[in-house]
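During the second half of the funding period, the structural biology subgroup turned its attention to how the target accommodates small molecules. The most pressing case was zinc ion, which had performed well in the primary screen but for which no bound structure existed. We therefore specified the complex as follows and requested a full 3D prediction, including the ligand pose.
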Amino acid sequence: MSRDTLVSLFCELVQIDSLSKHEAAFASVIKDKLAGLCLDTTDDGAGPYIGGDCGNLICRIPATADGFPVIMLNTHIDTVGDDTGIQPIVEDDEIHSASNTILGADAKAGITLILAALQALHDQDLPHGELVVVFTVAEEIELVGAQHLDYEMLQPLPQMAYVLDGGVTPGQMTTQAPYADKISFEVRGKAAHAGVEPEAGINAIQIAARAISEMKLGRLDEESTANIGTIRGGSATNIVPEVTTFNGEARSHQEEKLARQTRHMRQKVEEAAADAGAEAEITTERSYNGFALGPDDAVVQRGIAAAQQVGLQPSLHKGGGGSDANIFNEHGIPSVIIATGAHKPHTPEELLRIPSMLKCYEWLIAIITLQQ
Ligand SMILES: [Zn+2]
């Protein structure tokens, strides 16, 4: 597929809004494009369970030759935040947004690459094994699309998956990702008039402040992080605040370290509340489990061999975030994230490097067609 065709497909896709839980219009464009390749797409019905207008899309492409693994290709079809009306501008070797919005290369660069690869298989009659293409919804809102994916529909499970939701450097694979917990805190003190009888009150904001200031936060070590991200409390300056709620998260590539950090954050709040005679209610929830794949895993091996075949320097990368790959690995599909040429996602500076995208396209074709 030529540079111009890839660029114009990408520009077409980013101009169609696809906010999380509002992916239906965009999904129907994808379905039409696949139908143009004589491929049927099934909606797995996850939409109503996640409050969205559309479920995850699943499309099976039968093998045309023997001796290939069953490969799943995935990326998400929603874009982050609430930017709509995205207008791409092509300038030399880069595509960026015309205004102060994201570009949507996360993950429409990945969608472009998958659609273009399927087109090439179709047009050029390339030999390949069975492919399972899964376009997930609502990835940007805590991976809920992948969490509610109908995994029965993927049976027998694909032997490996490539998630096209990675970075800018062709050949780069994210083979490790952290475990994550989210933690919600509510501190309940006692309201009182701040001027008339402050001694009758218990200041929930002050308790929260003490607890948070005593927490280890930020980058804890090279594989663990923690954050308090929101806080809300009090109602007026003349009232000793009764309630303060705050929310945080912790991540680590080591599950034991995550457990230790989560316990530490809880303890600081429990201690500060107990010392002041207040109550603390704390809920912890696992956001996703981590994964760690290495050069011995078939999915990584194939990615490396395919990169080398097209003259790329393969590199394995440890990710700091969660993606649908975490959920697929949890469900027993060995999955890595591969680069697409997208840069600075989730910001108005987001851009797509066209030469990188072209190289990632060659890489993807090699991943699909490689005979080992
Ligand atoms: Zn993404």
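Two results from this model are relevant to the next phase. The CA atoms of residues 103 and 222 lie 30 Å apart. The chain has a mean pLDDT of 97.
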